[in-house]
Design brief:
Blueprint (H helix, E strand, L loop, with lengths): L5 H11 L6 H9 L3 E7 L2 E11 L2 E9 L8 H15 L4 E6 L4 H9 L3 E12 L2 E11 L7
């Protein structure tokens, strides 16, 4: 992802997230050296993901897929690519937060090797005020790739 991609990424974010990141969140992620990736074809950007590395761990901050591209395996492929980036950088684990109500995402993360390690109470804004976040981790310790 480059600064030139931010408008397209932000447009996808606004379309697919009830409580989207700001354009500045994406620009800040680039400026801070986070691992920011897009999936792009000749038709444009279809998805994005941002991984924040910290010593030997990383946090998957966001992943999004354009509405027209959902349910086609792109999110799974992007998640796999971000996990590979983490492994290549010798990270021991990757964390993320996810809304429990986002059952498709929870299922995707579990199928990719993530397990629930905690709960952040009232972490997400929602129509009823707030919603907890499941904290999940994918641990590479003992992984033949890590």
């Amino acid at each position: 992802m480059t600064e030139a991609d931010v408008d397209a990424v932000f447009a996808i974010e606004q379309a697919v997230q009830a409580y989207p990141w700001t354009r500045g969140n994406f620009s800040d992620s680039l400026a801070n050296g986070y691992l920011c990736r897009v999936d792009e074809t000749e038709d444009g950007i279809r998805g994005y993901a941002i991984l924040m590395p910290a010593v030997d761990e990383a946090e998957l901050l966001t992943i999004g897929v354009a509405a027209a591209q959902q349910r086609k395996g792109l999110g799974r492929a992007m998640l796999g690519a971000m996990l590979m980036l983490a492994r290549e950088r010798n990270m021991q684990r990757v964390f993320l937060e996810v809304r429990p109500s986002n059952t498709a995402a929870v299922a995707l993360y579990r199928s990719a090797g993530f397990a629930e390690v905690g709960v952040r109470r009232g972490y997400y804004q929602n129509a009823n005020g707030s919603e907890d976040a499941l904290v999940m981790a994918c641990d590479f310790a003992g992984d033949e790739h890590g």
